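User: Teach me something about this protein's shape.
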Amino acid sequence: MLYLIGIFILTITRIKNNESTSKTYSTSSNKVPKASRKKHILSASAIYRFNCFDDFLNYVYVIRDLLDSSKSGPKKIAKNTSFYFYKGNYYLIFIDINSDCSNFKKIFSTITEFATFVSCSDLFGSKIYESGKPIFSNNALINCISLYKK
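Assistant: First, the predicted structure itself:
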């Protein structure tokens, strides 16, 4: 019979040649160096797919108050927003997203009610730019908000 007394977990760490091997951490101290947390998102762009144009209009209608009340305004959410029709779906492309915008979390959590996150790949964005039909090639959110203000 085989009896297991305990579980052993081994961690192997590779140390680069230029790093000091004399730096050790005391086991008596429970302090472990914390990894720095970045406030910014990992990607500079994001692509969302809407099933129909009405879903996009409804999204803009909901966030227009957030964008108007934002200190930074709609131009500061992303450097550019584009809206394209491609293979039966509508795509909203955010380029150079600014995560420091005052209503950033609300705006990007609201979009999940109306659209599906597709990609943050520049390659897919380029494919949409080349093959898709532009509806708003620049400043899509600003242009749609201006439609509601008239």
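Now, about its shape. Residues 36-42 have pLDDT under 50 and may be disordered. The beta strands are 45-50, 78-86, 89-97, 116-119, 133-136. If you'd like, I can walk through any region in more detail.
User: That's plenty for now, thanks!
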